[in-house]
């Protein structure tokens, strides 16, 4: 039997090792002739471009290269043929399924024994994810750079690391003057510790709620800002700093200040008017005895004054229905009442009307009903009556008395009852039903929901 000589065995082993390395390497390898036709490719290259190895051997490199990248690729390939030096290029392949993949190619020339270039070998790495990440970073950088909001980042030592154009505009410092300096440079002296508190919370992973605060412009003036703070993480998930987004709210703050001044002035004038009316009532109607017309009118004026106080707290916008009820019943012991109903925000006009209605009900109960007896109790409840037509949605309020003197139907309506009926009908677009039940008086008042909240 004739065996292989040592030299033949060595060549066979080397060839086998090369074949294994060629096909098992984690990078793509393709051998082409000078026209770009594939001579051989490994499995990884086939996976990257999405064609089988046999299909690729019928194709050229140009067939899988994105058309927009071909001119640059061919230019560098010709330069390699002229000078012999390899080149690197990032370009796009179009896979068999139409999906575009970004690759990094390292191309080298293969020469024969005479030094002539006869083939080219390409080592390919799929960099699609890296390119996608780079594009995302560029998009985010463009968004940050062009944002009107001031966006800065600081490290855990509170030193400024980045500073966008919005920050330059809001704080007055160009980026080169701000980056590297302590973030405390834009804090007013009286809140100098705010930055330390924020960064300590960031370090421990605590959430920092968006909040309104003040910052210092380069010229020394203060600016009011709405501030959002978020942690910055490194690739291992560790916190390395904080990003801050600040929006200038100085104009809004100035508008609020002006509004508060106007509301204060309005409140002052209303109180003066009510005080003047009180004085006129006393002088015109004489001493205000318990059941005198003057006492009734003065108590109604007092009810309106309390309603005005409720509206002052919300800059004359609205008031809570529960607060309206409780304020109207404040002259009486709290233990005599039960209040039940979901809260509703009532507009300014309806606050005054409801306060008058509840005042009349309370006054009547104190004179003739449940509030005139220690054992008396009053339950005030309300609920919304929904409708597919918003204009038909209503709020039904019930005033129900128990434990008072025997109920007697009056022979005529007094001024208070007529006032209550008029206010509900004209101001609240509703109606009143009265039940003189033996167990206690019941008022059912139904009002248009839109008249309360519109």
TrEMBL record:
PROSITE patterns: PAC (PS50113), PAS (PS50112)
Domain PAC: 87-139, 209-261
Catalytic activity: ATP + protein L-histidine = ADP + protein N-phospho-L-histidine
Keyword Nuclease: no
InterPro entries, per database record: HATPase_C_sf, PAC, PAS, PAS-assoc_C, PAS-like_dom_sf, PAS_4, PAS_fold_3, Sig_transdc_His_kinase_HWE
SUPFAM superfamilies associated with the record: PYP-like sensor domain (PAS domain)
Biological classification of the source: Bacteria, Pseudomonadati, Pseudomonadota, Alphaproteobacteria, Hyphomicrobiales
Keywords: ATP-binding, Chromophore, Flavoprotein, FMN, Kinase, Nucleotide-binding, Phosphoprotein, Photoreceptor protein, Receptor, Repeat, Sensory transduction, Transferase, Virulence
Signal sequence bounds: none
Listed EC numbers: 2.7.13.3
Protein known as: Blue-light-activated histidine kinase
One Pfam family, short name: PAS_4
Protein's UniProt keywords contain Flavoprotein: yes
Domain PAS: 14-84, 136-205
Organism: Pseudorhizobium endolithicum
């Amino acid at each position: 039997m004739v065996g292989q000589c040592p030299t033949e065995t060595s060549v066979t082993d080397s060839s086998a090792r090369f074949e294994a390395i060629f096909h098992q390497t984690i990078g793509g390898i393709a051998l082409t002739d000078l026209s770009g036709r594939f001579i051989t490719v490994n499995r990884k290259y086939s996976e990257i471009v999405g064609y089988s190895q046999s299909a690729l051997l019928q194709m050229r490199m140009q067939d899988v290269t994105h058309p927009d990248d071909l001119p640059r690729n061919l230019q560098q390939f010709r330069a390699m043929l002229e000078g012999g030096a390899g080149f690197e290029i990032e370009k796009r392949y179009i896979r068999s399924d139409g999906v575009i993949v970004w690759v990094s190619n390292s191309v080298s020339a293969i020469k024969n024994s005479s030094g002539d270039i006869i083939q080219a070998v390409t080592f390919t790495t799929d960099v699609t994810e890296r390119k996608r990440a780079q594009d995302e970073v560029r998009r985010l950088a463009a968004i940050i750079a062009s944002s009107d909001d001031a966006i800065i980042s600081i490290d855990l030592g509170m030193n400024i690391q980045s500073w966008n154009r919005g920050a330059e505009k809001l704080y007055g410092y160009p980026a080169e003057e701000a980056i590297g300096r302590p973030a405390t440079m834009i804090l007013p002296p009286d809140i100098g510790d705010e930055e330390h508190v924020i960064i300590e919370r960031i370090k421990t992973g605590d959430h920092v709620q968006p909040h309104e605060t003040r910052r210092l412009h380069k010229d020394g003036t203060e600016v009011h800002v709405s501030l959002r703070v978020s942690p910055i993480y490194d690739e291992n998930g560790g916190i390395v700093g904080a990003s801050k987004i600040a929006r200038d709210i100085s104009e809004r703050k100035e508008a609020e200040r002006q509004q508060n001044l106007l509301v204060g002035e309005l409140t002052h004038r209303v109180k003066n008017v009510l005080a003047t009316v009180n004085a006129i009532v006393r002088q015109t109607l004489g001493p205000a005895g318990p059941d005198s017309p003057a006492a009734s009118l003065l108590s109604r004026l007092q009810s309106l004054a309390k309603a005005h106080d409720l509206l002052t707290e919300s800059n004359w916008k609205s008031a809570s229905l529960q607060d309206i009820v409780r304020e109207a019943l404040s002259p009486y012991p709290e233990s005599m009442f039960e209040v039940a109903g979901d809260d509703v925000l009532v507009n300014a006009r309806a606050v005054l009307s409801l306060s008058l209605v509840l005042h009349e009900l309370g006054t009547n109960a104190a004179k003739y009903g449940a509030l005139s007896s220690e054992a008396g109790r009053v339950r005030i409840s309300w609920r919304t009556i929904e409708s597919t037509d918003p204009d038909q949605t209503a709020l039904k309020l019930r005033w129900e008395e128990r434990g008072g003197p025997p109920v007697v139907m009056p022979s005529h309506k007094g001024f208070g009852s007529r006032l209550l009926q008029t206010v509900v009908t004209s101001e609240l677009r509703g109606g009143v039903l009265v039940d003189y039940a033996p167990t206690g008086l019941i008022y059912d008042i139904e009002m248009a929901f839109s008249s309360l909240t519109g």
